[in-house]
């Protein structure tokens, strides 16, 4: 009975050791393996602090209205051309308004051989870091009443 | 988001005017968005009949949130 218990404990010990070693091997390799994926604001700020290239894939008008400082504006439809002049080994953080277009940008970059691509998961809408505003001028606090004399709901959107 | 807004547009006909702008295709909408300081899409601006902006919501919203703001407009 004792022998059986001893063997079982030994087997469990070996299994645990194998698992720990496997984890160490994976962790060791992960620094050299390609990395890509969604990141939250905190991780994105860390990348920003490291001086990672930041690409805003929204339209020029959206970019000019406000963007992450030091971001470059490369609208999604121009990304394929622009990435040709970038080094595939350089890390890149992509973002858009809500994280939809930039997921596509991330896929394009990874497919093109870029090895460290990160997507700001929830986009600039949820970004709580600094924003550089473009030349916008004064922001209106009210609008002229409309001809119908009714209250108005304005929705500004894009289809993508 | 569009089906929800379209449904509400019909429901609030005669009570609230709906003005929906695709800022990538509609120059007037892009200009208006800039004037209002709307930096992101989607952005909803709820404006009272006297032109004062009652509320701004950025990002996706629920139908209940939209209804609440629409009902609060004067």
Count of DSSP H/I helices of chain B: 3
- Walk across the major sheet of chain B and give the strand order: 2-3
Corresponding CATH architecture of the domain at 34-126 in chain A: 3-Layer(aba) Sandwich
Label the CATH architecture of chain B: 3-Layer(aba) Sandwich
- Name the helix and strand elements of chain A from N-terminus to C-terminus, one letter apiece: HEHEHEHEHEE
Mean pLDDT of chain B: 88
* Range of helix content of chain B: 40-55%
Assign a percent range to the helix content of chain A: 25-40%
**Number of discrete helical segments of chain A:** 5
Write down the CATH topology of chain B: Glutaredoxin
Pair of chains with the largest interface and how many residues each contributes: A-B, 34 and 47 residues
Radius of gyration of chain A: 24 Å
Number of strands of chain A: 6
Q: Find the CATH superfamily of the domain at 34-126 in chain A.
A: Rhodanese-like domain
By CATH, the superfamily of chain B comes out as Glutaredoxin
The whole-number mean of residue pLDDT values of chain A reads 79
Main sheet: strand order of chain A: 1-5-4-2-3
